[in-house]
Amino acid sequence: MSNEQQTSSATRAKKRRNTLTDYDSRRDTLEHIRRVSELLEEFMSKLSDRASDHDASKLRSPEKEAFDEYTPLLASLDYGSDEYKQSLAGLGPALEHHYQNNRHHPEHYERGVSGMTLIDVVEMLIDWMAAGERHDSGSIAQSLVVNQERFSLSQQLTEILRNTAIEFGWLVRVNENE
Question: Which tens digits make up the pLDDT trace of 106-117?
Fold first, then answer.
């Protein structure tokens, strides 16, 4: 929406509010619903782009060769364990390349998670869910615990991620107060 359209829309809304006795909120509400829908469609389009491009760099050198070698080993280890961390370090430059080319990883940003967008965070959570499914002992619950410490996530963000996992059925709510 252009600045002129926004100003015109705001002016019309102000005029409608000035006549409080005959104001009907239906038109404003329908316009708000339309605008929210438009913005959500834009958000979903960006998510769709992420779904199409997710981890595509792993299919090319220098990442492919390293992930061919290390993925089977990493899948057999407990996520976040010392052994897992040592094996992950073996990916070396390939892993650095992966982080540089995939913004859903906190390592992509100088400020870690604080540098991410909401789109990045959504993709990160979904990546954690799918990655956990590849590990013999993996789970989204474990990923949330390990990554809260690993990336210094706030309690609030961790709870939002946990609530999202529960809403999607990836995690079971332990009690009603969660």
Answer: 999 999 999 999
3-class SS of residue 68: helix
Instruction: List the Cα angle 3/5/11 in 5-degree steps.
Output: 100
Residue 147, classed as helix, strand or coil, is: helix
Could you give the CA distance from residue 157 to residue 79 in angstroms, rounded to a whole number?
20
Query: Around Cβ 5, how many Cβ atoms within 10 Å?
Result: 9
- Please check whether residues 25 and 86 belong to one and the same domain: no
For residue 9, the one-letter residue type is: S
Total structural domains within the chain: 2
- Which contiguous run of DSSP H or E holds residue 98? helix 92-101
Closest to 113 measured CA to CA, from 103, 101, 126: 103
pTM of the model: 0.83
DSSP 96-155: HHHHHH-TTSGGGSTTGGGG--HHHHHHHHHHHHHHHHHSTT--HHHHHHHHHHHTT--H
Residues 116 and 78 in one domain: yes
